[in-house]
Amino acid sequence: MFKFAAVVALAGALLSGTAVAEPAKPTIVLVHGAFADSSSWNGVVEILRKDGFPVVAAANPLRSVSNDAAYVSDVVSSIAGPVVLVGHSYGGQVISTAANGHDNVKSLVYVAAFAPDAGESVADLAGKFPGGTLGAALAPPVKLSAGGVDLYIDQAKFHDQFASDVPAEQAALMAAAQRPVTEAALTEKSGEPAWKKLPSWFVYGTGDKNIPAAALSFMAERAGSKGTVVVEGASHVVMVSQPQKVADLIEKAAK
What we know:
Residues 28-248 form the AB hydrolase-1 domain. This is Alpha/beta hydrolase. The chain is an alpha/beta fold. It has one domain (27-254): Alpha/Beta hydrolase fold, catalytic domain (Rossmann fold), CATH 3.40.50. Helices cover 42% and strands 16% of the residues. A six-stranded parallel beta sheet has the order 2-1-3-4-8-9, sandwiched between helices. Strand 8, helix 10 and strand 9 (227-231) form a beta-alpha-beta unit. It is globular and about 50 Å long.
């Protein structure tokens, strides 16, 4: 009788332990946009890692939507287990394409990001609502030997245009290290977007001069956002100036 009771108690303890065991947290894949690089996610990465999330800040090539999405898709394919895809700016169009065909991508997060519908480009959406001033802030295009041009933000205008709520010294470093995007990438039309099938979340600032807040609100509503965070006065790099708010939303999407 004693042995039977002990076995029952042990089995109960094992089952109880199994019941309370937490599932593995999804991997967060962060995709930067034009004029930024992977280091723009540093503040967000620090918070997510502290909270136990595996994180990959992918180096978005910024060459074309199809090329960049294929690269991010390969990154996702290399990850075992669930994934939350997060895109900033042009990176939003990239994740909208890259998530297609991956059952392990569970949700999408758009951080001051484009969420085009089929047949739309970043350039189309940027001009859909008034308020964007990126065109006037661009430096002279850099001609590429293979054809086409690279676009940069004029370093003297970078702080005001791109990162107005970031300290000037930090913005100057970001301006010098900015990654160019091809003009062709900004005009390439989107295919069928993954946000039509996957839950999505949005966060953006009212001080965004690259993508007007009205455009970001329109895209969030159209995508059926599960949760939208609007940060008063935040610039286009809300993940740099407000990493906690961005990380908090990503963690909600991860649940």
